[in-house]
Amino acid sequence: MTEFLAPELKMFRDKFQHFLNENINLNAQAMRSKSIEKGFYSISHQSTLHDGPANALEMVIARESVASSGILDHSNIIGPDPGALMNCSDEIKNNYLDPMLKGDKKASFAFTENDFKNPTTAELIDSQVIINGKKSYVSRAVDSDFMLVVLNFKPDNSRFVAIVDSNSEGISLNQTFESLDGSTHSEVTFDNVQIPQNLLLKNVQAATQNILQERLEMSAISVGLAIFTINELTANLLKPHRSGASLSDREGIRLKYSDLRINTYAARSMLYRTATLLEGYENVINEVTATKIFCTETAFNVVDTAIQLSGGESLIVGNHLEAIFRKTRSMKLAGGSNEILRLNISKGIFEFDSGIL
Fold first, then answer.
1. pLDDT at 282
2. Is residue 208 helix, strand or coil?
3. Cα separation of 151 and 159, whole Å?
């Protein structure tokens, strides 16, 4: 838990929280400028504490802090991480990585196959990589400048990641839709899309690591939103009720409220333990997956109960709890639906003997 963080991490947390408190009322662009100025925007690839990217605990602290401040979109405060572009060539660094990290270019990650029996493939023809296939649920594809596409390379089905400019000939976006949390997703078709061979990356492990980072990110955001929601609910329950006494005096309310604090405490403990494990263990897929499931479900249950206890005003569009409800509900599906991820945990144990308690 946070009480056992190293002194430098506690100092980082306090400094970051102070920054959020001072600038929370700024608009998105002004907040981004301030975050760049203070060095927080780039922590995913350049820590404020040491050389190199921030570790898992630093990122958890930062994302939890943003969410516990009631901020739903952290993209203007914490910039993207290099992901599969880590240790890339100078050409890719100059044309893709650096512009992405500075916020000048946006990337999307095309990972989920539309049909797992017919995965997206690539083959080399006359020094050109030809890509064919279809990816589903590609987040932010509609406004991305380039995509990182996971594919099977013919003839041996070896796995690669390709950098593909979003305006490349042969790319079409179908069934673009907006989730209830406001994010956009698309089905993306690749029809004989050609890219030069130098935009083919072998760093598939980094792409897989992106999935783990995304799930841990959602876990941290979920815990932060649960903390913010409980603080809001506490203030609401202490206010005078029309009956004369505050709702916090009622035993039934206290029982429900206590459960929210118990589950949030457990979720936060799980989050920080998993982040610590990421620093010392190579295979923590099951632990990250379990954390994503528990934290997202805890956050959703917290805000759902908080709305029930706070009353109808919480359902009005624009209310903080209404917005958090939409955000937390979507995270139970994003990054892999919690039902499917439960099966993955069992598979990890029974088929690969992977996972700890």
1. 67
2. helix
3. 6
Residue whose structure tokens are 């923590």: 284
Phi, psi of 152 (to 5 degrees): -100, 125
Q: Report how far apart, in Å, the C-alpha atoms of 250 and of each of 153, 246, 253, 261 are.
A: 63, 8, 5, 17
Pairing mode, strands 146-153 and 107-110? parallel
- What is the location of CATH 2.40.110.10 in the chain? 88-202
Please classify residue 58 by burial: count the beta carbons closer than 10 Å to its beta carbon, then call 0-12 exposed, 13-18 middle and 19+ buried: buried
The CA angle 99-53-158, to the nearest 5 degrees, is: 75
Beta-bridge mates of residue 324? none
Fold of 205-352: Butyryl-CoA Dehydrogenase, subunit A; domain 3 (1.20.140)
| DSSP symbol at 47 | -
Rounded distance between C-alpha atoms, residue 154 and residue 170, angstroms: 19
Q: Which fold has domain 88-202?
A: Butyryl-CoA Dehydrogenase, subunit A; domain 2 (2.40.110)
Q: Is the peptide bond before 155 cis (omega within 30 degrees of 0)?
A: yes
- CA-nearest of 112, 89, 104 to 199 is 89
- What pTM does this model have? 0.85
Give helix 204-238 / helix 320-331 axis angle, nearest 10°: 150
Take residue 32 and report the two structure tokens written for it.
Answer: 């981004």
> Residue 141: pLDDT above 60?
yes
pLDDT at 18: 96
Residue ranges matching CATH 1.20.140.10 in the chain: 205-352
**Could you give the CA distance from residue 82 to residue 255 in angstroms, rounded to a whole number?**
45
Contact assessment for residue 272 and residue 226, using Cβ atoms and an 8 Å cutoff: no
* Single-letter residue type at 28: A
Mean pLDDT of 115-124: 90
Q: Do residues 82 and 59 lie in contact, with contact meaning Cβ atoms separated by under 8 Å?
A: no
Per-residue model confidence as pLDDT tens digits over 258-290:
999 999 999 999 999 999 998 877 688 899 999
Contact of 42 with 36, CB cutoff 8 Å: yes
